Amino acid sequence: MTTTKHTLTKLVQPYLFFEGRCEEALEFYKQALGAEVMMLMRFKESPEQSPGCQPADGNKIMHVSFRIGDTVVMGSDGRCSGKPNFQGFALSLSVKTPAEAEKFFAALSAGGKVEMPLTKTFYSPSFGMVADRFGVFWMVIVPQEQ
């Protein structure tokens, strides 16, 4: 078996579909995590009609890039089916101190569902899991000091 060396830098980024609630999610992440919008385009601003969304959806978000810390997350209102289905993955938020973990965990928990309360574990001084009010699953962790 031979391997091919690629000269392009590889980057995997999360892309979240909010099924019509993207703007609300952005405001939530701005307040909860200090997210910063880098780019935002609405369906009505697209030079081409996007399949799957009706003209009445023109103010919905076609694409957004936003930064949380050093990570760029992308998102959209999606195909506007109204059926969000976040399963099988989580976003992991690494913070420096248990106090920061408490702050962000509390913010993400507002209107969401705590799956595992923040607690000390063998691998972290503070770790917890929560599904936010949009159904996005988050793991908040303070990495163990090496």
TrEMBL record:
InterPro entries xrefs: Glyas_Bleomycin-R_OHBP_Dase, PhnB-like
Gene Ontology biological process terms from the UniProt entry: methylation
GO molecular function per UniProt: methyltransferase activity
Transmembrane segments: none
SUPFAM superfamilies linked to this entry: Glyoxalase/Bleomycin resistance protein/Dihydroxybiphenyl dioxygenase (SSF54593)
Domain PhnB-like: 13-141
Pfam families: 3-dmu-9_3-mt
Keyword match Methyltransferase: yes
Keyword annotations: Methyltransferase, Transferase, Ubiquinone
Highest taxon in the source lineage: Bacteria
Protein's UniProt name: 3-demethylubiquinone-9 3-methyltransferase
Originating species: Pedosphaera parvula (strain Ellin514)
